Every structure is written in structure tokens, then in C-alpha cells.
Amino acid sequence: MTDDIAARLRALQAADLPVHGGRTLAYVYDSGLAEVDEVARRAVASFAGSNGLDPTAFPSLLTMENDLVAAAARLLDAPDTVVGSVTSGGTESVLLAVQGARDAHLATHPDVRPAMVLPDTAHAAFHKAAHYFGVEAVLVPTSADFRADLDATARALDELGERVALVVGSAPSYAHGVVDPITDLAALAAERGIRCHVDACIGGWVLPYAARVGREVPPWTFAVEGVTSISVDLHKYAYAPKGTSVLLHRTAALRRPQFFASAAWPGYTMLNSTMQSTRSGGPLAGAWAAVQSIGDTGYELLTREVFEAVDAIVAGTTDIPGLHVVAPPDSTLIALATDDSCDPFTVCDEMAARGWYVQPQLSHGAHPATIHLSVSAATRPHVPDLLTALAEATRAAQDAGPVAVDAGVAAYVGALDPTTLTDDDFDGLLAAAGLVGDTPGDDGGLALPTRMAEVNALLDLASPALREAVLVSFLDRLQRPTGWPA
Ligand SMILES: Cc1ncc(COP(=O)(O)O)c(C=O)c1O
Hints:
Blueprint: H1 3-13, H2 34-47, H3 59-75, E1 83-87, H4 90-108, E2 115-119, H5 125-133, E3 136-140, H6 150-160, E4 164-170, H7 182-191, E5 195-199, H8 207-212, E6 229-233, E7 245-249, H9 252-255, E8 260-262, E9 270-272, H10 281-317, E10 323-325, E11 333-338, H11 344-353, E12 359-361, E13 370-374, H12 383-400, H13 407-415, H14 423-432, H15 453-461, H16 464-478
Parallel strand pairs: 2-3, 2-4, 4-5, 5-6
Antiparallel strand pairs: 1-7, 6-7, 8-9, 10-11, 11-13, 12-13
């Protein structure tokens, strides 16, 4: 890389959230181990051009994939019959779990539209799967403790009858950080001969070590009878570079519908175990290197560290007036809520002003708006600073008072129809919310404020369907060709 290109890349990266340092509490997972990151980075670079399309052409990739699946299987109490694949991330693992369940179901019920039953806290990746694969997502409200409601799940299963292809639980859920009652969910599924997927994308590589270091962990692995598949991301709590997750199935027969082969053209026979066809060996090698170099002892240590941080944040929050933990965390995710004296969105902005990224979560149905923290091992030494920042940010949010949406803007939003939202409507919304660039000569492009509380408060007023429509318009506006450097 020439110095010039490296400098330009660094300049581009300057506006990004920091990946290291333990102060970014969503999107990234930081072990704090610089030497592990370096080994993994080199592995990514060495295998960036290798192609997982054909395991016979790049046998190294097959070996690394089978090694990672074996490591995941050991961690998740899998029987000898287990098989698995490495995918590009949690969403792909979830997509494949749903696709496999759908295709198995269609094989025996060709005339029935398949459905899956999931708690309303399940990750949005399941909604994407429903959308892609024509499976109806039947959401069951969660109990007061944010966990799947078993009676409501049983009722939904009985009502849907033979339509159900899959039951889903999370270990833990992203939004509230609690583990669903997997033993009971899996039993409900098994009694009816239905597959049960545990989405442990975010907790799967840390909860087993939490149990090993003596923490109370609700059962959720293959040790639970009736669990047929589990997703666990390597690019989260295995602290691997971005781009890998593992999807495990209890038996090879359960995985079979996941495979795709096509000889229906004159080129090579396409043969895939995941959604991608050509896939870079980089992320796989990076994950292999990270898992090898951290090792069981390293993960136990990192798990002790991350839970020290979680416990200290939970305990410290009780001393911050106006802020509380929504549910005692089962894993490494914490959801915080505010009382009426302030709003969570302003707290997030105030945290950003103090160098901390915490993630706003909009209200949804019975679930209040909250602040999400994915805690990493690297956060532990900074917990006292984090708690000081949280206390200051909450006080500043209280001084500012709950963010108010202008009545005219609220009325404008209230009148928008998500099913017919046009570019003009979106422009009107941007103008009403003061989000249009006003630099002379500019083309009315987006001018996002550094403080997002008003935008989040506005979105919070909108229905989920309108949020989706507005944000799709937003992304459409963001993704436009710009001046490619000459
Ligand atoms: C529980 C759960 N499932 C699925 C996903 C999707 O993972 P990814 O963003 O890697 O696609 C996430 C991401 O946070 C998650 O927390």
C-alpha cells in the first residue's frame, strides 16, 4: 500500500467509531488483547484472496471451518452427531436456520404456508428470514421479565398446528440481555415434532465460559433436549474479526436442506453450504487465528473480566438517579431505562459527547425505549469512567428535560402512510425536522446533526412500519455515488 493510500484510508476511518479501547458498547467486541488482534489481522490478510467456493481447491479453508465447528460443538455440549457450517455472520446463520426449517417443512407439507413462532424480542434477522423465505413470523409477547411466555407460545403452536416449521428462543435476546426458557420452548417444539433454533449469536461464545467460571447460566445448549440448531457468532464474543458465525445442527439430516447445488448451466456445478458462493477465506482464517490464540484459558479469563465489568456497571447504575437496569442481565448485554425526568436518547447523546458510544433502542409495543450496552472485556478497566460518564450524562439529560418533538413535526409524521411513502414525503419530513443541508449551493442533501435525540424521539413516535419506510428512504439517500477520488 502506498503511503498516500494508507493515509487516505486512515483519514476515512477517522470519523468511524473506535473498534478498540472498550468505549464503543455496540457493534464491536474488544478483547483488549493487541497481540490477538494482530495475529487475526495477519490471518485475514493472508487468506483474503482465497475462495471458499470450492473446498477441494482451498483445502486449508475446509480444515479451518471444520476446526471452528468442532470448537463450537465442544463449547455447546453437542452430541457426536452434530454438524455445522461457518457463515458470514449472525444474520446469515439465522437465515439458513429458517430456510432449512422451511424447506424441510415444505417437503412434508407442500400445500401449507410455513410459520415460525418466536418471542417478540427475537432478533430482526428472523423478520428478514420471514421476508426472504415467505415464512410467517408469528410473534408471541414476552412475559414481564422479557422472556418468552410459555403459555402464549403453546397457544400459538396449537392454533397454528401443522403450519409451524420452527420455534425460536434467544440466548440471550439482544434488546434486554436475558435468556429465554429454552428447556420449555424446546420441549414444546419436540412434543410436536418441530425444529427449535436457539439464537445464541451474541451469547454463544461467552455463556459456556460463564458457566465454567461458576456463574449461574440458564440451560440453552444442545444439552437441552429438543434443541435442533444453534447459531453462535465468532465475530462477537469469540473476539474474532468481522465476518464469521457458526450454525450448528444436531444431526446431518437436519442440515441437509441448507445445501444448494446447481448443475443446471454449462459452467462449474455450483455447490454451497451457505448463502454465499465465492467467499473470502479472510474472515474464516481471522476467526481461526483468534480462537486458536485466545484458547480456552484465554476465553475464561476474558469472561471473568467482562462479567466483572457487567456486575460493576449494574451495581454502579443503582447509584445514578433517573437511570435503572431494565432486567438483571443473564449475559454481557445491559439495557438501561430512564425515569420520567429525562429520556434515554439524550443520555446517549451526552455519552457520545463524553467519548462513549451506547446505543439507543426505540420503544416497541410494551417495551420502553432503552439504552443498550454490549460490554466487552476491554471495557473492564474503564468501568469507573463509564459510570462517571453515565451519571453526568443522565444529570445533563435531566437538566435538559425530556426531548420534545415539535407539534407540527409530530403531526406531519402522524399523517405519513408507510405503505405509500414517497421521496417528496421524505423530503418534507427532512425539512420539517430541520435535517436538510442549508449550505448555499448544496443540493439539499442530508445534514445529520451530531446530536440524535430529536431524530430518535421523532422515530419513537412513528409506528414500526413508518420507521422502516423512513429509514429505508434514508439509506436510499445515503447510498448514492459520490466523488470517487481522482
Ligand atoms: C441475538 C442476535 N442474533 C442475530 C444477530 C445478527 O448478527 P449479525 O449482525 O452478525 O448479522 C445479532 C446481532 O447483534 C444478535 O444479537
